[in-house]
Amino acid sequence: MRVGASPVPHAEILESVRTTLAESQIDLQVIVFDSFDEPNDWLAAGRLHANYFQYLPFLEQFNRAAGTALTPVVAVHIEPFGLYSSRVTSLATIPDYAEVALPADAVNADRSLMMLDRLGLLDCRPDAGQLATTTDVWANPRRLVFKELTSWTMASALDDFDAVFLFGNQAMERNVHTDTALHCDRGDPVYAEYLVTEHAGQRNPDVATLAAALTGPQTRMFIETTYSGQVIPAF
């Protein structure tokens, strides 16, 4: 069974259930992707049986844009998402004209901008039912300067910007704990990361076996002991 995944923590969590799947005569092949662009394309094209790298808002946006019907199977984990800085220690000390790095993909850019809106750092007003973009910023009292980066470069850019948005796994790349974020959203089930399959894959018994393994007590223990709160179980 071929499953596409992001390197950390998704591929690592998949590897943790390899032995369990082998007991059911399932040969798990984990295909690691370094971008968010390919895993859904491969799944829609039948090159994968499932993928594991995304939360529902991202999946729904892909299905709308591509005209596909990729289907969530089970929620596995949640990665806290936060605003980090190596230059300032609090939201109050973010300076005027601070450079802030946002994820370039539409869903995560929206999530970042709306977090800044909730924190009172700007006034962002997207049209009803639309994802927020920087063009929807009505008021920006600190004159924050936004730069959109591909998600895979965010962690390496931490020292290059006044503030950077990072997922928990990206923070781990820099040995940065989520407790040090200027602000962090934790445990929001809307942003749980899902095992996803194409529509017919819901009837695949191997996918069902994988889903059960990923939401079992062994996986819960693996996540809790391996990631120490940077990644948390969603089940």
TrEMBL record:
Gene3D superfamilies per record: Periplasmic binding protein-like II
Alphabetical list of PANTHER family matching this protein: D-METHIONINE-BINDING LIPOPROTEIN METQ, METHIONINE-BINDING LIPOPROTEIN METQ
UniProt cross-references to Pfam families, sorted A to Z: Lipoprotein_9
Keyword Membrane set for record: yes
Location relative to the cell: Membrane
Membrane topology: Lipid-anchor
GO cellular component: membrane
Protein name: Methionine ABC transporter substrate-binding protein
Family: Belongs to the NlpA lipoprotein family.
Keyword Signal attached: yes
Keyword vocabulary terms for this entry: Lipoprotein, Membrane, Palmitate, Signal
